[in-house]
Each structure stands twice: as structure tokens, then as C-alpha cells.
Amino acid sequence: MGLSTEEKIFIVEYYFRSYGSGREGGPSLKKVTEQFQEKFNKTAPSNTVMLSIVTKFRRSGSVLCQRKGKSGRPVTVSTEENHALVLQEVLHSPRQSLRRTALKLNLSDTSLRRLFKAVACGTIFVKGSSGIK
User: Fold this and answer.
1) Can you give the pTM of this predicted structure?
2) Any idea where the DUF4817 domain is (predicted)?
């Protein structure tokens, strides 16, 4: 099981606090391990894991997962041009089904529904003159 964010932050903090305790005035992973076991009451990760967490922190400035929320194929159909096309087509023929509109615009059904949802959230459609008073 992976380490929690709190545990990763603890490792980075104590790694930098331990400077001067190790060989030749460097950091002491032994002290970090002892402090970790004392605080979290479980075995500390290996030296390699702790060093990789510190290296990641030095490289990115964060211990969080940089890929979180960005996995999978990126959505490329959601462009301003396609938003405008969908809005224009829905306003031009509001009674046409989304499936037929998708065929007309050469988009997949799923992509059109995603675009329509984005467009519809920012636009109010009034149906007839007997609307809500």
C-alpha cells in the first residue's frame, strides 16, 4: 500500500531537518526512519523510497501525484469551434434529436452530448411563451 500525503510530507520535512546529522554533514535517513516509526507506529519505507520522494519534491515542489485526474485519453473534441457549432445547430433546429445533430456535425453521439451539456449549462432555453412566471 502506498504512503499517505501526510507521511510523504513528514519524510520530506524530516529529511531536510536531519541535515548535519549524517555523514559529512549531510542528511540522515536513519534519523528520518526512527522519527517516522515513532510518529506513525509502523515500519518506515526503504531508503530508496524515501529518497525518491525527496527527489520528486526537489523536482516538482510537491509530493502529490502529478498525474492525478489526468489519466486516460485527453478530450480533443471540446474546442471553442465545436461549442459554437453545437450551439448554432441547436438554436437553428431545436427539435432535432442529438443523434441526428451528431450525424450532421460529424461528431460521435457521446462527444455531442458532452458538448451539448457544456453549452446548455451556460444557456437558458425557453420553451414557448407559456413559461414560468
Assistant:
1) 0.51
2) 4-63
